[in-house]
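Annotated sample (chain length 1893).
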Amino acid sequence: MAAAAAAAAVGGQQPSQPELPAPGLALDKAATAAHLKAALSRPDNRAGAEELQALLERVLSAERPLAAAAGGEDAAAAGGGGGPGAAEEEALEWCKCLLAGGGGYDEFCAAVRAYDPAALCGLVWTANFVAYRCRTCGISPCMSLCAECFHQGDHTGHDFNMFRSQAGGACDCGDSNVMRESGFCKRHQIKSSSNIPCVPKDLLMMSEFVLPRFIFCLIQYLREGYNEPAADGPSEKDLNKVLQLLEPQISFLEDLTKMGGAMRSVLTQVLTNQQNYKDLTSGLGENACVKKSHEKYLIALKSSGLTYPEDKLVYGVQEPSAGTSSLAVQGFVGATGTLGQVDSSDEDDQDGSQGLGKRKRVKLSSGTKDQSIMDVLKHKSFLEELLFWTIKYEFPQKMVTFLLNMLPDQEYKVAFTKTFVQHYAFIMKTLKKSHESDTMSNRIVHISVQLFSNEELARQVTEECQLLDIMVTVLLYMMESCLIKSELQDEENSLHVVVNCGEALLKNNTYWPLVSDFINILSHQSVAKRFLEDHGLLVTWMNFVSFFQGMNLNKRELNEHVEFESQTYYAAFAAELEACAQPMWGLLSHCKVRETQEYTRNVVRYCLEALQDWFDAINFVDEPAPNQVTFHLPLHRYYAMFLSKAVKCQELDLDSVLPDQEMLMKLMIHPLQIQASLAEIHSNMWVRNGLQIKGQAMTYVQSHFCNSMIDPDIYLLQVCASRLDPDYFISSVFERFKVVDLLTMASQHQNTVLDAEHERSMLEGALTFLVILLSLRLHLGMSDDEILRAEMVAQLCMNDRTHSSLLDLIPENPNPKSGIIPGSYSFESVLSAVADFKAPVFEPGGSMQQGMYTPKAEVWDQEFDPVMVILRTVYRRDVQSAMDRYTAFLKQSGKFPGNPWPPYKKRTSLHPSYKGLMRLLHCKTLHIVLFTLLYKILMDHQNLSEHVLCMVLYLIELGLENSAEEESDEEASVGGPERCHDSWFPGSNLVSNMRHFINYVRVRVPETAPEVKRDSPASTSSDNLGSLQNSGTAQVFSLVAERRKKFQEIINRSSSEANQVVRPKTSSKWSAPGSAPQLTTAILEIKESILSLLIKLHHKLSGKQNSYYPPWLDDIEILIQPEIPKYSHGDGITAVERILLKAASQSRMNKRIIEEICRKVTPPVPPKKVTAAEKKTLDKEERRQKARERQQKLLAEFASRQKSFMETAMDVDSPENDIPMEITTAEPQVSEAVYDCVICGQSGPSSEDRPAGLVVLLQASSVLGQCRDNVEPKKLPISEEEQIYPWDTCAAVHDVRLSLLQRYFKDSSCLLAVSIGWEGGVYVQTCGHTLHIDCHKSYMESLRNDQVLQGFSVDKGEFTCPLCRQFANSVLPCYPGSNVENNPWQRPSNKSIQDLIKEVEELQGRPGAFPVSISSETNLSKEMESVMKDIKNTTQKKYRDYSKTPGSPDNDFLFMYSVARTNLELELIHRGGNLCSGGASTAGKRSCLNQLFHVLALHMRLYSIDSEYNPWRKLTQLEEMNPQLGYEEQQPEVPILYHDVTSLLLIQVLMMPQPLRKDHFTCIVKVLFTLLYTQALAALSVKCSEEDRSAWKHAGALKKSTCDAEKSYEVLLSFVISELFKGKLYHEEGTQECAMVNPIAWSPESMEKCLQDFCLPFLRITSLLQHHLFGEDLPSCQEEEEFSVLASCLGLLPTFYQTEHPFISASCLDWPVPAFDIITQWCFEIKSFTERHAEQGKALLIQESKWKLPHLLQLPENYNTIFQYYHRKTCSVCTKVPKDPAVCLVCGTFVCLKGLCCKQQSYCECVLHSQNCGAGTGIFLLINASVIIIIRGHRFCLWGSVYLDAHGEEDRDLRRGKPLYICKERYKVLEQQWISHTFDHINKRWGPHYNGL
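Output written by the structure step:
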């Protein structure tokens, strides 16, 4: 577009007007504008107006076609002009100047804003914006608020959530149509426009003249830019180019809308004024350019195909079914023609101002064709044409935002909504053709949801523009494009068409914008009522729904597995739910009261008509086609749900809306077919159709679908069952489930339709279905709250659930206005009634639980309902899980010890309309089935299970519960030619039939059956008799043939006929002729009744003869008032007892018969005679059973073995084995340590040829560097002011110290004076398992060849410990030789300290004094070298090299002893920073410090320190003091007082030959302590003030001559002060500074404490070292006495030391040479330095020794504070707002996760930061997801969230958007894992990040 405007400004100038000189242009514009404004303000402004028009003509003309810029054919013409952009801006500049009328544009904006009556917010946002929704304040479910309005309103305690907008939206604050006023924010609460002054006329006068021209210019550009596309659709590129060029223009308009109400109303006038539009666009003027653009517009209109293809609707109209009245058909035509409503003349007058009356006509058929397309497709205002182009260009975001920004203007809102409706069909077509249908859908909904959520507006448009007609018709047309012939039932002749689920339209959900609009408007009562009253619309709608009836048909594959598994079922289920079910729920929500009965009648009437048409279309008679199933019956479900509503809420008489019996029989078939197919799918009969068929079966019952699918189906079947003949219904069920043949008394049978292996599960399926059918009350009388409670109990019984998964699993009424909103009051109150909350707990394994709800005990006790559980389980295992939990509860509460059966639960009473349902329980067919099954179970026939028995008993009990009151009405059925069932049972009442004895039964059995061989019926008492029924008569009916024959009679049949027809007998329909084996008839002697079978069953179950004893014989009361609880626990035995008791209490005869049966002592059961065939199958079963038991036993044994193995394996860390030793000499004979290799399993010592090693994980760590000296925790910054500066961390302080030393002293000496490794130090940890190093190598080889994807990288040496699977990356060789730890009793030698000092010095001087000479290349030394290499490579170079000369050996030396230091310091931190707890190391056997020391010592001894520089000399010998020493060298050595004593200790120890002798160690410690103490005194002297110093100096000097002066701190302190005084150390400071440093007065106690604190860290590290080297336990103590305890443990305290008087640290001193001399010597070293650099000299003396434990940053309580600050924060590196912002929890740095913007040398920012901040370990909080991600080296894992909602759940990705609060326990766990370096062990799911995070 730039070009267009450019052309306007440059090319379009008339010659008469010379171009203005550039410099004066701006001035001139302003002047011109002012002049014009004045001219227009005059009363007669015609001249001014003309002048302005001429100017605008010039500035805004579009002479040069835009196509040029967009790369069209006349590109050449666009030459001239200084590049398109310049002129373009020129035009905008002119407009701004003119609008402002000569003033400044910004001032003008401000002026207009002042008149804004800001009643509405109306902020428009696009996708991905974070907004809020408050259900408490919303009237419309679509209500949303911008963050600002939300936070300024008061929503405390409301049900709100934050969400990421998917399609974009607008803020509804201030709009009382959509939300309650109480929720408005402070800005939009004030509504009175009275205090807004009236807009002065002249302010906006120029706008009224300029804007029409400007908008017309924009429209011209849009016309120009659009080229009718070739066949393949408009090329996206061209359209986008045009839009890019138009960007500034549209943005300008958008800015205008933001000026507020005053400007918006001007824009509204401009956009809706028809006169302006007519004048400017008619194209009749002399301006050629306008003409040309008008032609392009007309071409575009024509090609938009706003006329439908002619043949589309023909068949929809031509054959109205006989039943529909001509009125309905007319309505249909009218509806379909909607867009050009047939009769639009009167409408024109209704809204004169915006004459939107004439609507575009749809071509229905050639008859209604209209030649004058030109007139009809006429746009009448800018707004209409703008919307037209917006659609044409597929809803560009900017245009959408502009159109929406205008909505706060009420007049505009109405006009725009009407325009939108007018273009609705066009929108649908564009959407169908679009390549980017997803984006476009979002943009459409972005607009429509703003318009249609407002009830008042929707009602107005419905009345004036026929919104409903348009929508329904558009939907119908849309679906018509993808119809195919239905193959259901009658493939050849079917006339039914269904949607094809494979089409893009359905697969990509392209229809959803239209459907969602439809659902939205149906949620308004006034609109829904119009819909329900309009018969024509209902007919059309049912027509639409029938397109989905029977879609996605499945045909069972019988031979091969299907080649390609189609996934169309997703589309089918989504379509039924969205396009059919949701509108249905919307309509139902308005049918809640009696007054709405008429609506229900309408829907039911048209629904039945549609169903009748459907049955006719598919040629359905009475048998469904075999092996076919469709899960989609939306018409059935509409019918069912409206019936349910009618009875439940509208008090309609059910029979008045039910069809005749024949229709009911048809209605029942397909839902029943689905139920049978579910059982078949679960029996694996559809396995050849692939997994997708299982997917369908699951989706059908899944929580989001069940109440629109399975529930209506079951309800419809319940209605049919309650009205149809029960015998017919029952036999239909068994026939559908294909188990009719199984129901025979004979022990063998032939099933023609089912394989034997499926029989059992199909029988279970049939019985389960009957149980569900008879016990489910969801639509038969339960109230909403009862339903909610039942659903919740069922879900909780399967598993404990989180709050959100419960919300998700409870099928809510999908219509948002139904009142059952998730999270609503009733949900919470029911939840608290049935469940207990289990707060989130932590298991030691580190797996984090969420807050769960678990059923209360009384729920298990009284409400657990297996039927509901079975109905609602998607996975069959959940049923088992519920039963297991129930069993566990009963065991625990002591209610029932054994294996309970599913409990029997009394049901809520039926609604009177459905009483007929219970007749099923009292029909002979069912009784015969129950009798047969009981008999078969008693006789142990095959294919019966406990589950079958359970269901049989359940049905009997249900029958007894629901029996007719009087027992006397046992009328015999009317005699017909055949009284086939009467020979079975006399009546139909279960109570009396139970006692009826059946003597002989004639069965058809295969000739091979055992029964046939019998001589006489008498022998049939033997037990091996088989299974099912026939009556005494011998004819065999084919049920199917019978049904066909009697079809007419069935409809008005008598009971005797019913009995004939309904005899369940094999349907031979599917067996090929001749395939059935010969059947013969045999007669069985039975002589049992149901009661006698039950009693025998009791004996069988209990395993005892005569186990049943009627309880009423002892207590007759039981019968009179049977205390039968509503709810009963127990197993089969208790169930039988309960049934017999109920039977007896309901009838005296039953009671007598039971007593009689019990009196006959049952004869012992004869041993079974089993035929060979049976024996074979039985044996097989038994063998299988035994095999199973054996397997179980083996597994159990194996598990226990493994367990004990693991336990021992964890303990056998050999270095611990206490081997008794005899101590003979000072050098004891210690046995060698023995190691077990976890790979080859051999044990033995580690030798030089075959060394063993510990499995270790080496990792670089900066945890130590994060220690701070400040107790106040660091907080995560949540505002610009709070920033974190890392100068107070341990790492920073040590860095500063080292660089200070390096500035003034000799480099090599500096590197011995400190330790490194505070950042990037190497930490070594082990799981404690050992292996041979050669075994390990072969293990690594095998891992390398293993193709399985591991979570670690074998090439980097990573592996998991073969035994405990802990992550590791190296092996630390075990040093051969004595097991030092086993020798805690090393004799203290009696040598004097002087002798020891000499020995130490000699030993250090011997370079090769190592048992293994490093020169001889043994395996061990090689391994030691390689592990040293590993250790070095663990950390980055920058953390190893601190020397000024790179690669100097001093560097390695420093690095090595620092590794030891790092590991000791970290262990100290793991112990909590002190050693008060004592005991063995917390890691127990898992410490590898001993082995690590050997490796380090071996390498340290390669670098022998030059004896001249060995600090040991300086510590233990007096040297000649050479006053000139300091000045000769350029850089002196580091004075000994500036050395870090702990580093010295490690250097001394590691320089000694290993293993070290205890007395040498103690000697080193004693000597170093004297230095440490002197340092402490010096530091103290520097800290205190001038006066204190002089006071101490004198006080101490007096005591110097006393006997133990060398052990008195006062004397030593005064001496140190006087010595240091000689250097100019104290001279610099001004007095005021000191006063500030330490205002407190020093008492002896505080000084003593100060000295102890200075020395403690050294003592702790030394004690730990001693513990590891010599295996001595650490004593535990109180915190106060830690110093003295450690001192005595280290041998510093003389043994005779008495502890009565307060402990004085100086008493530990043991000076090797006279104290005062050596102190003088040490202080002298400093003197020369401090004379020149007193400040630095002081700083180096004060060493910070008190570090607090490291912590992660403290996080705020509420997550929202973090989110609001960070999610909009710009990145400091790239200054953009990151897509995935993250923040480091260690140092608070803000980073872009995965951001390519901040990538450096292929490392993304998070990875880079993890290396700099944590030496490879990073802990980041992902702002947009609330989860924490851990980066460890080259791997990462999602750790979880430390923010949980009120129900203790995480909200990953903030999907639910509920408020989140910090979970302190979780954060502690995270911190603990960070400090203890156990991320690798505890978190299991690691993946490589390829530096891309």
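Annotation: The chain is about 50% helix and 5% strand.
Annotation: The longest strand covers residues 1321-1332.
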